Amino acid sequence: MAGQTQTGSIARTILKGIAITGMVLIAASSPYGAPRLLQALGKELERRKWRQVQKVLHDLKKRKLVRMKFLGDGALEVRITKKGDGIVRKIKIDELAIPQPNHWDERWRVMIFDIPNHKHKYRLAFIQKLKNLGFRMIQKSVWVHPYPCDEEIMIVRKFYGIEPYVTYLETAHVEDENVWREKFDLPFRK
Question: What is the pLDDT of residues 138-154, one digit of tens each?
Fold first, then answer.
């Protein structure tokens, strides 16, 4: 699923759409009507040719990411597999971002963690995701962000299976706040 090819983009959209809806039925009578039935997959598919969508669906089936079954009326039922659902979860984590509000609420979001050695690869992935989300390191296992992100952190902790080892805090007062503000290009306190 890595890469920015047109086919890869369609595959990601199809997988996410099927994951959201649980299943998609494609009418056999009109191959050009199928993109309308796949509206849950996003507007992007409306502009794609049916042959390309069909090719992607068969590729997803071959990779065991979806199951396809023809029904008695000739319609095609497409369902996501457990393996496909795992890919969708990974896509969601990769696309996760923290929205930046117009005005800062002058509160700090602090992540404190002590992830055990047997979860070393998850600790490394978690730290990388914190960097990608815009967190800055204050100490080795203490990271900070100025904008609300409790939901995003909940998703990331759950994805890596490290919930018991990570604590999310919000605070309005910190020592050396101007150092923290400098890390995020925020205005200094007078």
Answer: 999 999 999 999 989 98
